[in-house]
Amino acid sequence: MAGPDAYAEYLTGYRDILADASATGRRLTRAELESRRDLGERAAEAGLGLRAMVAAHMAETRAGRPAAGSVDAVLAAAAQALDAFAEGYERAQRDAVRQEEAARREFVDDLLYGRSDLGLLAQRAERYGLRLSHAPAVAVACGGTAYDDGDPVPREVERALIGRFGDRSILLTTKDGRMVCIAPGNHDDVLAHFAQHAHAVTDGGQVAIGRAHPGPAGVVQSYEEALNALDLAERLELGEPVLHAADLLVYPVLTRDRQAMADLVISALGPLRQARGGARPLLDTLTAYFDCGCVAAEAARRLSLSVRALTYRLDRVRQLTGADPADPVQRYTLQTAVIGARLLDWPAKPL
Questions:
Q1: Distance of alpha carbon 138 from alpha carbon 18, whole angstroms
Q2: CA distances from residue 226 to 243, 245, 249 in whole angstroms, order as listed
Q3: Which of 11-15, 100-104, 317-321, 336-340 has the lowest mean pLDDT?
Q4: Fewer C-beta within 10 Å: the chain N or C terminus?
Q5: What is the distance between the alpha carbons of residues 194 and 15, in angstroms, rounded to a whole number?
Q6: SS3 category, 133
Q7: What percentage of the chain has pLDDT greater than the value 90?
Q8: At what angle do helices 307-321 and 280-291 cross, to 10 degrees?
Q9: What string of DSSP letters covers 84-124?
Q10: Could you report the per-residue pLDDT of 302-338, keeping only the tens digit for each?
Q11: In the sheet that 206-209 helps form, which strands lie side by side, from edge to edge?
């Protein structure tokens, strides 16, 4: 604990204020109050505790109280001075918190977008308990609302993670309204626990987990994979609560040549537009049929159709396209075209 001399600098003028107030009964002037606030800020910046400073003020009040004069005036002046000192102290703390939050946000942005020197990023990461020597992986959770770092939902998830894993090189933050968890890729239990809690507290929101990649650049890559997985889930109407980018690698491959995919969609599925009601009902039928492993009864249940009605629709597809969904070879072409249609939002958008 610091000795009395450590506090003397922050009590400058305090005894004189008490003496004058005792003699005149006056209140502190605006200049005196501002000087107390400034001293409070300096004490906070020096790392001195507020309780210790209050004790130092009280000791100075007892030691410097004039023998003559009004005790009430002295106490009133002391209360004013302490209140101003505490105001300045708290102001400095708020400024420090804001600066720390700004620095953390800048670091998160640089980390997720790779906008800084990679070696420097690794050093800055250690300040926030994140070690990038192991290949990191990123999980992203989205819900029905946007989240900020101080919101109750991210804080609840953070408490759950810290309560189970401590500070095992985990960084939980928010970005663009989503929760983001960065952890070593070999700690699958951390990301799984994050996904479980994030899904629960977001009332059924989805979580996507990118693959682990080495170094700070790996964070950027894993983050982009997680975002792409969420985008794919929305476009393909994937309802799984947790998506793994490693399981969805086929979709970026299919859409890498957009023109080729568009040609396949028009060639394989274009004739469905001739059907009564357009292509959408038959396209939805194919989607349900392929999604349930080509089990007609299950597909019919999902579409609220009878098996006979579903069979009729599949036969209509065969008549229009010349491809039989039940034939293994022709099924592959149709299923790939159906995936492409969902990715390209056809037929809602012309190709």
A1: 59
A2: 8, 6, 11
A3: 100-104
A4: N
A5: 56
A6: coil
A7: 42
A8: 110
A9: HHHHHHHHHHHHHHHHHHHHHHHHHHHHHHT-S-HHHHHHH
A10: 999 999 999 999 999 999 999 999 888 888 889 999 9
A11: 171-175, 178-184, 136-142, 206-209, 242-244
Other CB atoms within 10 Å distance of the CB of residue 41: 20
Across-strand partners of 178? Answer: 175
Two structure tokens written together for 131: 């070690």
pLDDT for residue 1? 46
- CA-based torsion, 97, 98, 100, 104: positive or negative: positive
Beta strands in the chain (DSSP E): 136-142, 171-175, 178-184, 206-209, 242-244
Place of tokens 């102290």: 89
CA distance 131 to 100: 19
Number of Cβ within 10 Å of residue 8's Cβ equals 12
Contact 118, 216 (CB under 8 A): yes
Per the CB < 8 A criterion, the answer to whether 236 and 342 are in contact is yes
For residue range 110-134, list pLDDT tens digits in order: 888 877 766 677 777 777 777 777 7
Q: Is pLDDT above 80 for 179?
A: yes
Which amino acid, residue 139? Answer: A
Structure tokens at 255: 């859409």
* 3-state SS class at 140: strand
DSSP state of 292: T
Nearest-angstrom CA–CA distance, 347 and 351: 8
- ∠119-125-131 over CA atoms, to 5°? 90
129/110 Cα distance (integer angstroms): 16
Residues 309 and 315: their CA atoms lie apart, in Å, by 10
Task: Evaluate the omega torsion of the peptide bond into residue 347 and state whether it is cis, within 30 degrees of 0.
Answer: yes
What's the per-residue H, E or C state across 246-283?
HHHCHHHHHHCCHHHHHHHHHHHHHHHHHCCCCCHHHH
Q: Give the DSSP letter of residue 179.
A: E
Residue, of 99 and 321, whose pLDDT is higher: 321
Mean pLDDT of 88-95: 89
Distance of CA 149 to the CA centre of its chain: 7
Name the one residue in this structure whose structure tokens are 């001075």. Answer: 81
